[in-house]
Amino acid sequence: MARPPVTAGDHGRHAPGEEIAHAVVAFDDNRLMPELFGEFDQNLARIEQRLHVEAVARGNQVSLRGSAEALTRARLALDILYGRLQKGHQLSAGD
After folding, report:
1. Is residue 7 scored above 90 in pLDDT?
2. In order of start, what are the domains of the chain with their CATH numbers?
3. Consecutive H or E run containing 21
4. pLDDT digit string (tens) for 53-81?
5. Pairing mode, strands 6-8 and 61-66
6. pTM of the predicted model over 0.70
7. Among 53, 58, 70, 84, which one is most buried in terms of CB atoms within 10 A?
């Protein structure tokens, strides 16, 4: 479903010396993106805050930046939420 993270040398807003990884997660069903991302991308904002990553949505893809560990957790969270939507479930704030 998604490509593995690629390490980048950019340190941007992260701690000096911290390795920053980048991953693009692509989803098959564009119709589910509004629910996955949330109104005004609020679901992505929650993932950013809780998992300490940067997430930018474009079409059916989410670009993630952060530590390799944070990217792994963010990708897993997105995959779980997307799976729930594929099964016809609604997402709530607690998800």
Report:
1. no
2. 6-86 (3.30.1370.10)
3. strand 20-26
4. 999 999 999 999 999 999 999 999 999 99
5. unpaired
6. yes
7. 53
